[in-house]
Structure formats: structure tokens, C-alpha cells
Amino acid sequence: MNKFSLRSLPVILSLSCSLLLTSQAEAGVGLDATRVVFPAGQKDTSLGVRSLKDTDSFLIQSWVENAEGNKVNSFVITPPLFLMQGKKENTLRIIDNTNNTLPTDRETLYWLNVKAIPSMNKNEEQQNTLQFAITSRIKMFYRPNNLTVAPEEAPNKLTFSHQGNAIQVNNPTPYYLTLVSIKANNSALKDTMVAPMSNLTLSPTISASSISYRTINDFGAQTPVITASIN
């Protein structure tokens, strides 16, 4: 009877990671952005991928998921699979395959996934080796043309209201807005993202008269602190 062992079958674990520099160093592969904005009407856009280690090789696999986390063919990535050897750089080309089926009055959210699978050298093949395939997952926003509000103006358009003891945030803009460093009467609240033309309840619930927050811009940087009243 055949038996499996770590020596004969290396274990590959797939982990999701944030794009913090430390996480990239552990993965050995980094991305040139923490989010992608895809303008409508543009045939394609690109994302740089780079190896952070001089000698290691990685098999790079990329794909796109919808907001629910299901793999889709709305965008085609080339190359979808390639080998990156040594401290090299490559470019992922992301091609629009939506065929004008997406909303034209608001952004649509996708997730771009880049998995780095490390190679094994001959010495490791003779040892009990545990390999980690690290997946970097970043947001990709498909942005229609001629939206009614400029993206830099959107964070100031949010409004806040009391819903019982909870705080409801309303986003009347056509953009996905990620809120960070949220404080209600100096009590910290959990970071969140509110979809275009929708609202959500901030957690945990708290009674407050004012709220402050930052948002994340198109370049992945935090905007200045915004303070608003809670109606």
C-alpha cells in the first residue's frame, strides 16, 4: 500500500495576506499598488509584480473575483501564470472583458488575486519541507466615465445619523469609500467600506454627537482627517 509523507508530497498552504511590507517580504513577491482603478472605456490597465529575493523563484498565478469572492471572467489577466526567477520584475496586463454590462452610474468592486508559489531546490526535495503559497488580494474598482462627483470630493459627502444607539453612515456618491481611523466622541470604531449609494451601520454601536475619519484614496494613501456631525 502506498503511503503519503511530507517527503513525497510537499504541503502547499494558501494564505491571504495584506500588502504590508512585512507581508510582502515573507511572501518574497510584492505588488506595485494596494488597489487598482480601472477606468471605463479603457481597453486595459497594468499592475507591476516584483520578486523581493535574489535567488528564489516563484510561480505567479493571477485571477479576478467579484465582490462575493467568486472567480469571474469579466477581466482577463495576461500572463495568468508565469515563472519569476531571481530579483526580477514583471507586469500583469488586465484586459476589460465586461462587454459594457456594468453599471454606468457607480463603481463596481472586484478583487485582484496574485498567488506566489515558491519553488523547491534539490536539497529541499530530500527534506521534510513545508511550503507556503502566499496570495496577495487587493481591491479593483471599475470606474465609469463622467460620474457626477469627483473622487477627491466623495469623502466629504458622507453623512451620519443615529439609528437607535447605533451610527449609520450614508454614502450618496458613486464611489466605494473605505473608512479608517474612525472615532466617535474619541471612541475608536472598526475600519469599514461603504458601497456607492448605500448605507451601513458602524460597529460597535455607540451614542455620539460627532465622528472623525479618514478614507483611502486611489493611490492607497490616507486622506486628511474629516470631522462630521451625527444627526
From TrEMBL:
Q: Which Pfam families does the entry link to?
A: PapD_C (PF02753), PapD_N (PF00345)
Localisation: Periplasm
Domain of life, per lineage = Bacteria
Keyword Metal-binding in the entry? The reply is: no
Q: List membrane-spanning regions.
A: none
List each copy of the Pili assembly chaperone C-terminal domain by range: 169-223
| InterPro entries in alphabetical order | Ig-like_fold, PapD-like_sf, Periplasmic_pilus_chap, Pili_assmbl_chap_C_dom_sf, Pili_assmbl_chaperone_bac, Pili_assmbl_chaperone_C, Pili_assmbl_chaperone_CS, Pili_assmbl_chaperone_N
Q: Does this UniProt record's set of keywords contain Signal?
A: yes
Where does the secretion signal sit in this chain? 1-27
Using the record's annotation, list all stretches that form the Pili assembly chaperone N-terminal domain.
28-147
Keywords, alphabetical: Chaperone, Fimbrium biogenesis, Periplasm, Signal
- What family classification does the UniProt entry report for this protein? Belongs to the periplasmic pilus chaperone family.
**Protein's name in the database:** Fimbria/pilus periplasmic chaperone
The organism named in the record is Rosenbergiella australiborealis
